[in-house]
Specification:
Number of strands: 0
Low-confidence stretches: none
Shape: flat
Order of helices and strands: HH
Helix content: 25-40%
Mean pLDDT: 79
Number of helices: 2
């Protein structure tokens, strides 16, 4: 009985997570998109407004280590004072 309760409690959130909308985004009735930014002639679409700024999600610019390597000596790795 306990297993059934756990299974049902997990099924609800999983079902809700699976039902995403796939239709075109539009503002609610009676509302409009925000005004165009200064210097831009047209208003950005809803999809353009949802795109992340490069500073908000920067690209990774470091290469991941593929095998373990010896660490370089760190002159700032000092023992605690006290």
């Amino acid at each position: 009985m306990r297993l059934l309760t756990i299974a049902l409690s997990l099924a609800g959130p999983l079902a809700l997570a699976a039902c995403g909308q796939t239709q075109q985004l539009t503002p609610p009735p009676g509302e409009t998109l925000p005004p165009a930014p200064f210097g831009r002639a047209d208003r950005p679409s809803a999809e353009e407004l949802l795109e992340l700024d490069p500073l908000a999600a920067p690209e990774r610019n470091v290469e991941l280590r593929r095998r373990s390597e010896e660490r370089e000596d760190d002159p700032f790795d000092l023992p605690p004072l006290g």
